[in-house]
Amino acid sequence: KSVPKVTVMHPTVSRFLDHLRVERGASAHTLRSYRDDLALFQEYLTAVSGDGADPMEADPRRLRSFAAWLS
What we know:
By secondary structure, the protein is mainly alpha-helical.
């Protein structure tokens, strides 16, 4: 799948990326990789659960379904 152009990330995802940048000193490449992967996950969640889907509610079943969706 191609990386979607997500303009607004879920607040939890934004806070996680900020944590990686500020607290962990993650490189720009690392941040881009995480952001791209999380944008795909957000696109998947929106497709199956609608707008406003919370990535914090993902369980192992949902993650397996996401992995299948990617292929």
